[in-house]
User: What shape does this take?
Amino acid sequence: MSQQKFTDRKNRLKILENAYSNEGSSLFIIYGRKRVKKIELINRIIDKRGVYFPARKAVGSS
Assistant: This one.
């Protein structure tokens, strides 16, 4: 895991960790602008405990 500065994410990280630790299945959709460390947030939550599938809007879809 990178040791880059991870600012303003402790609250979001705590919310996701609490939700992730609950029993049962969950779906999380994380979206936002480019270069705001969304993948870093996901990696810190999953930490070899799960799977994520990155997706993007297909060209020509509405």
The mean pLDDT is 76.
